Each structure stands twice: as structure tokens, then as C-alpha cells.
Amino acid sequence: MAVQIAYYTGLRIGEVCGLTWQDINLKEQYLTVRRSMRYNGTRHKYKVGPTKRSKIRTVDFCDTLAAILKTAKTEQHKNRFKYGTLYYLNYYKTVQEKGRTYYEVYKLQRSEEVPEDYKESSFVCLRPDGAFVSSSSVEQVCCKAKKTIEGMEDFHFHTLRHTYTSNLINGGARPKDVQELLGHSDISTTMSIYAHSTREAKHTSARLLDKVVGQT
């Protein structure tokens, strides 16, 4: 589901993984980007902290993504009963280090005792057993797609952000509005992504033409 969310909202991989159901307004069809999940190599833990620009932003989404999210929420509820005590619940705890405050993420099965300093978190992207989906696991899925699906040799997660940008601008959205949706500090970054996406589309078209011509 992380890939679907990114395709329809342009969120960065850490922002998608850091989404909770409290960030999703299904009725009004928008989400609020408050945090980003990333791996802390020093402590060998996943942590949740501010977004790249440390700013909160809202992103509207379409009916298609709304339907995907509603289905996912229903499935997660069913899986709680299906897995029973083997179902994982996700938590975070506050960590203060070198004058900084962030939150480490943990998963515990329902049968396990929960430490007092753990607070439950309802992440949107979950495995069937309830464990949170990390950025590295999403990247592994993207890597597998590159290797197994023809035509996706150049695919990476950030491609979805480029596609989102290109789709909006080609559809008539104002570049300034797209900049705010993506959380860019400078509109030149937004337009650079658009130009890059356009070049990629041209290259893809050229490769497809090679295949067609080669078969005639």
C-alpha cells in the first residue's frame, strides 16, 4: 500500500511509512504529513521524527486512494482477529539524545508485556500480522519489481514522486500549488523534478519505439 499512497500523494518514502490513521481524513479526503520514519544506524532502530523541512503540510487525495485506504483499514481490523495474540501492535517511546528528541518505533505481539514508557501508534502501512512497514522493506519490494517486471528496470520509490509531480502539472495544476503539496522549499526543485520526469517519459517512449521498429 505504501507504493499506492506515494503514487496518489507524492509523499517521500519515510513520510508514507510514518503515516498514522490519525493523519488520514477519509471523509474530507486529505492527509496530514507530520513526521517521517527513518533508520537510526547508530542505535539500530527505526525512529520517527520531523519531515525533511520540519513542516506540517496537508495533501488532498482522490476517490481511488480513499477506496484503497478504506479497504486497508477494514482488512487490518479483520487481521487483528485472524492472528489473535500473534498480531503485532506498534509503539513508540521518547528518546532524548544530544539535545534532540525523537521517537523510536517498536512492535510487540499482543501477548507481550508493554513497557510503561511505550505508547501505541496506529500506522497506516502494516504487514498482515500488524507489524509496521519500514522504509527498507518498501525499498526491497521496489528492488524486486525492478528485477522481475519488464520495463521497470529504472524504477525506484522516488519515481512515484516524480510521476505525481508530472501528472499534476500536465493536468493543469499551478506549479506553486504542486510545490506546497510536495513540501519543497523552492519552486525550482519542483520544476526540476517535472523536467526530469518529462525527459524520462521521452526516453521510455524512444525505447518502446525501438522495440516496435525492431519487430517490423
What does this structure look like?
- 45% of the residues lie in helices and 19% in strands.
- It contains seven helices and eight strands.
- A five-stranded antiparallel beta sheet has the order 3-4-7-6-8.
- The radius of gyration is 19 Å and the shape is globular.
- The termini are far apart.
What distinguishing features does this structure have?
single chain, 216 residues, hpI Integrase, Chain A, 2 domains, 5-stranded antiparallel β-sheet, 3-stranded antiparallel β-sheet, 8 strands, 45% helix
Number of domains: 2
Order of helices and strands: HHEEEEEHEEEHHHH
Strand order of the largest sheet: 3-4-7-6-8
Q: What would the average pLDDT be, to the nearest integer?
A: 83
Low-confidence stretches: 201-216
Architecture of the largest domain in CATH?
Orthogonal Bundle
Percent range for helical residues? Answer: 40-55%
CATH class of the largest domain: Mainly Alpha
What Rg, in angstroms, do the CA atoms define? 19 Å
Largest sheet: 5 strands, antiparallel
Beta-strand percentage? 15-25%
* First-to-last CA distance: 39 Å
Structural class: alpha+beta
How many beta-strand elements? 8
Shape: globular
Continuous helix count: 7
- Looking at CATH, which topology of the largest domain would you report? hpI Integrase, Chain A
